[in-house]
Automatic annotation (TrEMBL):
Pathway annotation: Sulfur metabolism; hydrogen sulfide biosynthesis; sulfite from sulfate
Protein name: Phosphoadenosine phosphosulphate reductase domain-containing protein
SUPFAM superfamilies: Adenine nucleotide alpha hydrolases-like (SSF52402)
All copies of domain Phosphoadenosine phosphosulphate reductase, residue ranges: 43-193
Family that this chain belongs to: Belongs to the PAPS reductase family. CysH subfamily.
Signal peptide interval: none
């Protein structure tokens, strides 16, 4: 693909702004292709929440063997696990699974699932979501990170655009950033992709609360 760009010489804010202007009306395929041209060392992350099949399909049809990082909190619903297995099979995904170092059964005894306002909530989030994610990124060392963030999900996500930089300087790419649920429904139907809405995030009390990985 394109010339490899080292992580220490990644993008300036002006370059990110220019990319967002240039690709605001581009198709997901065009956005994904551009990201691979900028840097080939990429991963796509997923938790198999609703509409995740879209980003997994869109990226994998351009780069079939891309590492798919699945950080499983250990608290997913049976429906989510069944959905995940189906999507992995249908798209023949190259999945790298990351789970917390402590089982949910053990944590249920010593901590449970703390409420948002509880002092233990930060530690809980670190254990079930942030630590596995940091471990995944440390092992894969990507320069490009594909994700299915979309405008309208949270206040933070409304501000980032299709292209943004993570706290560690990784180019974060959200090809479906401007897409509505209705438009994604059509995409899933046209590509014979499944969806599942019985999803549970134990770190979030509200759907529009940021999960901690992106802010």
């Amino acid at each position: 693909m394109g010339k490899i760009i080292r992580q220490e010489t990644m993008f300036t804010n002006n370059q990110i702004e220019e990319l967002n202007k240039s690709f605001k009306k581009a198709t997901p395929a065009e956005i994904i292709q551009k990201a691979f041209e900028l840097n080939e060392k990429a991963v796509v992350t997923t938790n198999f929440r609703p509409y995740e099949a879209a980003i997994l399909h869109a990226v994998s049809i351009i780069e079939a063997n891309i590492p798919v990082v699945w950080c499983d909190t250990g608290y997913n619903t049976p429906q989510t696990y069944k959905h995940a297995e189906q999507v992995i099979k249908d798209l023949n995904l190259n999945v790298s699974l990351y789970v917390p170092k402590q089982t949910s059964a053990h944590r249920d005894v010593v901590m449970g699932i703390p409420s948002i306002d509880a002092p233990e909530h930060a530690l809980f989030t670190e254990q079930v979501k942030l630590e596995p994610f940091k471990r995944a990124m440390k092992e894969h060392k990507p320069n490009v990170w594909f994700t299915n963030l979309r405008q309208g999900q949270t206040a933070f996500r409304n501000s980032i655009g299709i292209f943004s930089l993570s706290k560690d300087g990784v180019l974060k790419v959200s090809p479906f950033y401007y897409w509505s649920d209705e438009k994604l429904d059509i995409y899933l139907e046209e590509n014979n992709l499944s969806n599942e809405f019985k999803y549970f995030d134990p770190t979030k009390a509200l759907e529009n609360r940021e999960c901690g990985l992106h802010a």
